[in-house]
Amino acid sequence: MSIFEHADFDGHEGVHFFEDKQIGLKAVIAVHSTRRGPSAGGTRFWSYASSADALTDALRLSKAMSYKNAMADLPLGGGKGVVMKPGGNFDRTDLFKAYGARINLLSGSYITAEDVGMTPDDMKIIRSETPYAAGLDEGPAASGDPSPVTADGVFRGLQVAVSHKLNRSSLKDVKVAVQGLGHVGYNLCKLLHAAGAQLWVADINADRVTQAVNAFNANAVSTDRIHACAVDIFSPCALGGAINASTLPEIKASIIGGAANNQLKSPELGEALQSRGILYCPDYVINAGGIINIAAEVSGTYEKDWVKTKLTGLQSTLKTIFERAQNEGVATNIIADKMAQDRIFGSDLSFGENHT
Ligand code: NAI
Q1: What is the largest CA-CA distance in the chain?
Q2: 80 tagged catalytic
Q3: Cα 279 to averaged position of ligand 1 atoms, centre (Å)
Q4: How far is CA 21 from the centre of its chain?
């Protein structure tokens, strides 16, 4: 299959393939757009069944980063790196050193940070080969693990959603089902519990569930029923595709908002949610806290107040999306896409496939 006919190719500015047979490196870096600034987005380190799957992820996630960075009003474009986890034994340091050297070849058109499967230690290794890596634990502008800030952004977004949909001024006694208690999900539970929300939680890792039950008085739910809880908010904080043809009819929450990327298995599901009266917080808007934190590091001076201002901006953007969706009778994900395309491409439709 040619890249140009790939269903997820969207006029990407560059798609780069890197291999180091000796070390076991196989990586794809997709640069979707640098129109607003250097492309930025985390690197995903994952066991892919095929290089075609890795390419699909890189193409989709890099486009989502363009949209996310534009909606957070950051001076950054969108890009994503995907490193295929080698099947056999491998040396993590050698692997990420080789990957860092490849990022350096792109001369700053792509800046990386952590995504699923990556740690600040990996970033340190990458940084030894290239300056185009952020999300570090040490250094003059180091921003560290972005997850707590992502959780803060999701929490703030849910405040706006609750005000819009439920006409409630706080999360006190609001019932929330959180799917996935990892770096973001657990931090989100902490914030929700402190705000007086009642929690239902699920994770494939039983220890995380026990921890949340003990710390937050949460109710444990099985992973295949968490979406169906009779709650006010369903918060997907695990992997993508939580809203799909089989979960949709079972969702009882009136708000969906969480950290996971690509929550809708397909975009049409946004309209299905809208017609069922469910308020969907577009994922790349509500989960932008982490990239905001990273952007502060990329700017060269990490300023907490700047991050806070951007998180407040995320809240007003969500409010605008909800109001426009209501007034125009259009799904929130479609409104968000339109706003993002406008911010990236303006009136120039010559880039990308079909930015209408
Ligand atoms: P993580 O890997 O720390 O946590 C994911 C959690 O989900 C793990 O505890 C895992 O056991 C659990 N999980 C996996 N499959 C599950 C299932 N079927 N049902 C229930 N639980 C399941 O990842 P992290 O960093 O918390 O990110 C969560 C999501 O948010 C990911 O989709 C990530 O791409 C997205 N995201 C994360 C950001 C960050 O700052 N960490 C920023 C923006 C998006």
Answers
A1: 59
A2: yes
A3: 22
A4: 31
Q: Note the pLDDT tens digit of each residue in 245-254.
A: 999 999 999 9
Ligand 1 centre from 245 Cα, in Å? 21
Helix and strand totals (H; E) in the chain: 11, 12
Residue nearest to atom 32 of ligand 1 (CA): 260
CATH of 147-289+316-342, one of 3.40.50.720, 3.40.50.300, 2.40.37.10, 3.40.190.10: 3.40.50.720
Structure confidence by residue, pLDDT tens digits, 281-330: 999 999 999 999 999 999 989 999 999 999 999 999 999 999 999 999 99
For residue 116, the CA-to-ligand 1 centroid distance in Å is 7
Of all atoms in ligand 1, which is nearest to the CA of residue 145? 40
Atom of ligand 1 lying closest to residue 236 CA: 29
Percent of the chain with pLDDT over 70: 97
Alpha-carbon distances of 69 from 151, 284, 293, 314, 339, rounded to whole Å: 17, 9, 12, 11, 12
The one-letter amino acid code at 296 reads A
Per-residue pLDDT for 350 more than 80?
no
The CATH class of 3-66+77-127 is alpha beta
Domains 3-66+77-127 and 147-289+316-342 share a fold: yes
Mean pLDDT of the chain: 94
- Give the binding-site residues of ligand 1, using a 6 Å CB cut-off: 115-116, 146-147, 150, 179-185, 202-205, 208, 223, 237-239, 259-261, 287, 290
